[in-house]
Design goal:
alpha/beta; seven-stranded mixed β-sheet; disordered N terminus; about 15% strand
């Protein structure tokens, strides 16, 4: 019973990641899927971004529709298993595979529970095929609706730039149902939330993450803009976000021990634990 009591008092830190450009150096569809439908990445994205004349189209819905249309045109059954199979080909930044066990162990050594979440406009199915999929408590991302034959026919769920913000509130309240629209809107005292915003660390690479970065920072958490040193646009975007006070830190996309991300995240874990201890001390003092 004593062990259970102690475990409940351990603060939980949520590490929330975008995927493309944050954990991987490219768009996940570019590591096999686009080639399988007979296109180059440039051709696929150019076609995806061409809205029908006189119409405004979500770029997320557009790329998902194009995946369905092009697979059908090539006689490919766009099944979940087919999509998942490409996940193993997705490149990851240095240190990503080892990162999760490494940072989990650091958290345990400090008396902190570390949880990992994906918050992406990419494909759930592709992420599920990666070697790191099991590391995430929940993957919040786009997914397809499959017919009775298991073939994708329509987007089941889409996640656009501002839509990503809803998952921050779900994570804070411990809601893992991606389609929940009720519990997420219920009022909950900050002390009763499993993961307050101050215990969140958001990692993203650019403009699509700005709403989430800003919200996490605004409510007392920390946001990190990740960039590849070889990607000038990504680096310039990260620096701009820091100048505009939209993020707390910018870091090179290197998840190994000794890298900037490791230094920042471990320091933030120390800070969150110290703050939790401070608040616990205050509560005990008030009861005297």
């Amino acid at each position: 019973m004593l062990t259970l009591h102690i475990m409940k008092k351990r603060p939980t830190v949520a590490l929330i990641y975008d995927f493309d450009g944050t954990l991987s150096p490219g768009n996940m569809q570019e590591f096999g899927f686009i080639q399988a439908i007979g296109k180059t990445p440039a051709e696929f994205w150019e076609q995806s971004n061409e809205a029908p004349e006189g119409q405004e189209v979500s770029n997320i819905l557009s790329y998902m529709k194009l995946m369905i249309d092009e697979a059908r045109a090539k006689g490919i059954s766009l099944t979940r298993d087919f999509l998942v199979s490409f996940g193993k080909h997705i490149l990851l930044y240095d240190g990503v595979r080892e990162w999760f066990s490494l940072i989990n162990e650091y958290g345990r050594s400090k008396g902190v529970v570390v949880e990992h979440y994906i918050n992406s406009s990419g494909q759930t199915e592709l992420i599920e095929g990666t070697s790191i999929a099991h590391e995430f408590k929940k993957i919040f991302a786009c997914s397809f609706w499959y017919d009775d034959n298991g073939v994708a026919v329509w987007p089941a769920f889409t996640v656009d730039y501002t839509g990503k913000t809803q998952f921050l509130f779900k994570i804070s309240k411990g809601i893992l149902d991606i389609s929940d629209n009720e519990k997420v809107n219920e009022s909950l005292k900050e002390d009763d939330k499993p993961i307050p915003f101050s215990n969140m660390i958001y990692l993203g690479d650019g403009t699509t993450d700005i709403p989430c970065m800003k919200i996490v920072k605004m409510f007392g958490g920390n946001s990190i803009a990740v960039y590849s040193p070889e990607n000038r646009h990504q680096r310039d975007t990260a620096r701009k976000l820091l100048r505009q006070n939209r993020v707390n830190f910018i870091c090179e996309a290197d998840y190994r021990v000794g890298g900037q991300i490791y230094e920042v995240v471990t320091t933030l874990i120390d800070k969150i634990k110290a703050e939790a201890d401070y608040q616990s001390l205050q509560r005990r003092n008030r009861r005297k």
